[in-house]
Amino acid sequence: MVHPLANSALLFSASKSRESTASVSPRSKRGQRSLMESSKENPAHSPDRGRTLVVMAKAPRPGLVKTRLAQSLPVEAVTELYRCLLDDTMMLARSLRTVDVAIMCPASDVEELTRLAHGAVVVAQKGEGLAAGLTSVFAHFTAPGRQRVVAFNSDSPHLPASVLESAFEALTGHDLVVGPTHDGGYYLVGAKTAHPTLFDGDGMGTKSALEALLARAHGKQLSIASTESFYDIDVESDLARLAEELRLTPARAPRTAVWLKHWGRTLAQLRTAMGNL
134 and 56 in contact (C-beta within 8 Å)? Predict the structure, then answer.
């Protein structure tokens, strides 16, 4: 379900379960296009063309990914976990029809991620940090013929594909769409055009990230919609929750499920130490 946001709205309906779905109107489907092909075509031919999903990623290098989890697990295990999350996220992205898939990353990571991208286009961001990466996504991909662009994090392979579809659907009637996380951040953001200062300022990666983004969007008088609220994988409680879900439905994120099964005893000890997770 997509929720339009009034200028004062900063609260979102939380999803009851991973199986929650969004209402998406049926659309005529067309074959998958390459990024080069789709940029040359007339955007009026089909309402489903011109959709690009950009995964925000880093190269899986020890000590540089999922650093909060590395406080409780061996750094090598955390690095492999991120590799699994990224691989399953790319599988989720490729499951969408009539959507071009790309990766945006730091320039130093392009070569390594190109080897892991399974054919997806990998683009180097301009500048350092997540804010620069998001700004680069919309500066690069919202060219003529690409009406709807969604930037998606690389650690939410458990998200229903229907939520990603609903984000693209929301952009038919709104300037901006956001996917809020339970901790005050956001797992996706989409737009139809570049807004150069939208991601400026403090708050990226903090519990106020979503609030800061919405405040800047309201200041630009952008119409905003939200998708369902979900969790991403940042801390031990997130990982324990994901382990419980994938224990029942491992096909949703198969590589991550294998990793979780291997590290199950350690995760069980974490659950015991942290209480009722």
Answer: yes
Domain 48-232: CATH class, spelled out: alpha beta
Q: For residue range 138-185, list pLDDT tens digits in order.
A: 999 997 666 899 999 999 999 999 999 999 999 999 999 999 998 899
Report domain extents, the chain. 48-232
Pairing mode of beta strands 148-153, 176-180: unpaired
The label of the residue with tokens 């925000």 reads 56
In this structure, which long-range contacts are made by residues 256-263, counting pairs with CB atoms below 8 Å and at least 24 apart in sequence?
256/81, 256/84, 256/85, 256/88, 256/157, 258/84, 259/77, 259/80, 259/81, 259/84, 263/73, 263/77, 263/81
Backbone angles phi, psi at 29, to 5 degrees: -105, 140
Query: Nearest to residue 99, comparing CAs of 158, 172, 161, 50?
Result: 50
Strand-strand pairing, 3-5 and 176-180:
unpaired
Model confidence, pTM: 0.79
